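Mods, move this if it's the wrong board.
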Amino acid sequence: MKIAILVVRTLMGALFLCTSVSYFLHLNPEPATTGDFKAFQVGLVASTYLIPLAKTIEFLCGLSFISGKFTTLANIVIFPVIINILLINYFLTPDNLPIAIAVFLGNIFLIYSHWKNYKGLFKMNG
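Not the wrong board. Structure tokens:
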């Protein structure tokens, strides 16, 4: 199980680091978009803060996953970003859905593997 955790954590960390560094350094050209996804992307870009915020979160969580430090926190912080990636791919760009599902399942696996660290979040104080 430890090897699986290390592999999943490292792969997710590398993916988040690559995509965020690529975004900030403009290493890849923007892909051509069409239809509903283009309208959605125009809205995201018009907000001026949302994409840089998501990429910053991806960068910090990628560093966390690669280093193995604060992974419990990184799993929770990156979860809303991953949900958005999954839903955007499901509704707007289904060609990329397998990658989004893999990232989602990787995050769920890491949360499950560190579940003892999350038990306090779900404790009922009565």
